Amino acid sequence: MLLKNLATNQVLTRTGRLQDIGGFREDVRRLQDWDTWLRLCSAYGGRFYRTRTPLYVMHHDHAAKAQRVSRSIALDVALEELYERNRDLYDAGSRRLLLSHARELRGEFSLWDLWLNTLHRRNSGPLRIYLRQRLRKLDPALRPGPK
What we know:
This protein is an all-alpha fold. Helices cover 48% and strands 0% of the residues. It has 6 helices and no strands. The protein has helices spanning 15-20, 32-44, 75-85, 92-106, 111-121, 125-138. Helix 3 packs antiparallel against helix 4 (92-106) and helix 4 crosses helix 5. The two termini are 28 Å apart.
């Protein structure tokens, strides 16, 4: 939960628990749900249960190009703000991994980030990220097209 929003934005919980943690923070510019679930997990434990059975129907009435709160700032900035608001929940290792993701989004993924993420993920994904960013800096024409 510290490094990835596993709960998404559709969570059912007791109203009193949300009230106890102060509910959603209105000043949060992006990742409002994640911020709330982090605080909820910290206060009450981090058990989430996913069900394949639909429990409700949700209708979105958003205009195609409407400005949404969730897009009001860049994700890398939002990740750094998430950390700052909840820094007491993060140990040193989790902090480094979360902030390295912000650097990845900015194209600043370093050799240190490569090392940390390879140890954490135990796969070659971080190496691909690092090499892709370095190649782009050498020759912008090497940017991969849409997948």
